[in-house]
Amino acid sequence: MFKVRDPQRTLRAIALFRYGLASLFLLLASFHEEKLLFLGLAVLALVMARTGFCPVIRR
């Protein structure tokens, strides 16, 4: 675990990164054959961003 000075700010930054990953996976799903794989990864990234799950940040 990492101890950070401002955990809320760090979690917001991680959530923003995960939203970006979800949008990237949705974009890839529209262009590649492996639609189910990329849609599943997009859903996983969205759920992790919405819940704020991050096991490496100590609150």
Explain what this protein looks like in three dimensions:
This protein is mainly alpha-helical. Helix content is 71%, strand content 7%. The protein is built from two helices and two strands. It has a two-stranded parallel ribbon with strand order 1-2. The longest helix is centred in the N-terminal third of the chain and has 25 residues, at 7-31. It is elongated and about 45 Å long. The termini are close together.
Instruction: Give helix and strand order, one letter per element, not per position.
Output: EHHE
Oligomer: single chain
Quickly give the structural class: mainly alpha
Q: Counting H and I runs of at least 4 residues, what is the number of helices?
A: 2
Shape: elongated
Spatial strand order of the main sheet = 1-2
For the record, give the distance between the C-alpha atoms at the N and C termini, rounded to a whole number: 10 Å
Mean pLDDT: 89
Low-confidence stretches: none
Number of strands: 2
Could you give a short account of the major beta sheet?
Answer: 2 strands, parallel
What fraction, in percent, of the residue positions are helical? over 70%
Rg, alpha carbons: 13 Å
Into which percentage range does the β-strand content fall?
A: 5-15%
